[in-house]
Amino acid sequence: MKLSVQDAAVTLNVSxxxxxxxxxxxxxxxxxVHKQYRFDRAELIEWASAQRLVVPPHVEVAAEHGEVRIPRxxxxxxxxxxxxxxxxxxxxxxxxxxxGALRIVEDAERExxxxxxxxxxxxxxxxIGDGFAIPHLRNxxxxxxxxxxxALCYLExxxxxxxxxxxxxxxxxxxxxxxxxxxxxxHIEALFALRDAGFRGAVREHAPREAILQEARRMAxxxxxxxxxxx
Length: 231
Fold this sequence. Notes:
2 domains, three-stranded antiparallel beta sheet
């Protein structure tokens, strides 16, 4: 979905003046079409993530044909699971092992999914600083993924992730789903959740699984989502 400068400003919760300044500096992914700037919504949200900008959780993401119901943040986390001591000495190894723990991916697709997640990281690392990263698929449509999930993974040892603060990453929130819309929705909410003191603290302190899910339920209850589409 293509956005105007005004739409982009609303999406990122900044002024249009800021958008024009970023365009002049070459910082933001925009396209000039008939003397007007346009932005791709998915690309804009991913760019904002890489820049550590807070995208409001109620921002709409364009629906797709065959769209699925997107579970609440806590439901998605419960579905994806909390995984401890995920091994690997590099980002590539870590993502391969993390994908191996996901319960909703067909065995035959795990290697391809891990490769797609790593390709996404090569394009723009998803580390947000303070030891966290939110890997997600850029194009999930070629995978047979049954439902949208979030997986919380604690790494056995922190690894370099080209984070903006230079710190290695030790905790992942992986967003996986059958459609672009479902992945971006969970990605936005994961960013929001990791800026929530209660949820972030529980995750950071390696709280028991139920305590983390309780914070996820509380946080999810405060989110304002656009109207749901699909079955």
